[in-house]
């Protein structure tokens, strides 16, 4: 069973600022609740083909995985994916102008779990949706200056 989770939030900040901050992997531990560390495996700046190693905690388990940037359109879209491990995943960020001003950011995670992950896919999707909402709220708070 495939997992496809998409969440969005409006952020009161210019699109170029939101996109630059969110697409910099070194910022991920600042706004992703479950990400513990990110190590760039290729030299900056991040471009298509860049690789970065993430360490996260999800559903009580430590997860290590390497993402590769697949698509990057500055200020519009950032796509990275991983093929290894029990849950190959693609993560997409998109940015657009929000109706009330500022930026609408959409975060989409999709993948095909294998093994036990197939059975747990519905539970994983709900947990991912909750985590993604927390992550986007943390990003919003950071960029709007409502947290330290």
Structural account:
By secondary structure, the chain is an alpha+beta fold. The chain has a single domain, classed as START domain (Alpha-D-Glucose-1,6-Bisphosphate, Chain A, domain 4, 2-Layer Sandwich), CATH 3.30.530. It contains three helices and seven strands; from the N terminus they run E-H-H-E-E-E-E-E-E-H. It has helices spanning 15-22, 28-31, 116-144; strands at residues 3-11, 35-40, 51-58, 61-73, 77-82, 89-97, 103-111. A seven-stranded antiparallel sheet has the order 1-7-6-5-4-3-2. A hairpin with a 5-residue loop joins strand 6 (89-97) and strand 7 (103-111). The chain is globular and about 45 Å long. It starts with a strand and ends with a helix.
What is shown here, in short?
28% of the residues lie in helices and 41% in strands. By secondary structure, the protein is an alpha+beta fold.
Full CATH superfamily name: START domain
**Sheet of most strands:** 7 strands, antiparallel
Using the alpha-carbon principal axes, give the shape.
globular
What is Rg? 15 Å
Core attributes:
148 residues, alpha+beta, Alpha-D-Glucose-1,6-Bisphosphate, Chain A, domain 4, seven-stranded antiparallel β-sheet, 7 strands, 28% helix
Topology:
Elements: E1 3-11, H1 15-22, H2 28-31, E2 35-40, E3 51-58, E4 61-73, E5 77-82, E6 89-97, E7 103-111, H3 116-144
């Amino acid at each position: 069973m495939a997992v496809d989770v998409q969440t969005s939030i409006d952020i009161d900040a210019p699109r170029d600022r939101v996109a630059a901050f969110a697409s910099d992997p070194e910022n991920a531990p600042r706004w992703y609740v479950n990400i513990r560390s990110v190590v760039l495996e290729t030299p900056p700046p991040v471009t298509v083909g860049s690789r970065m190693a993430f360490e996260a905690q999800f559903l009580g388990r430590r997860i290590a995985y390497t993402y590769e940037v697949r698509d990057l359109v500055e200020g519009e879209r950032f796509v990275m994916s991983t093929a290894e491990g029990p849950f190959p995943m693609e993560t997409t960020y998109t940015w657009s102008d929000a109706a009330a001003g500022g930026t609408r950011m959409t975060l989409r995670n999709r993948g095909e779990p294998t093994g036990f992950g197939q059975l747990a896919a519905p539970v994983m999707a709900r947990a991912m949706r909750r985590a993604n909402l927390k992550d986007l709220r943390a990003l919003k708070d950071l960029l709007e200056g409502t947290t330290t």
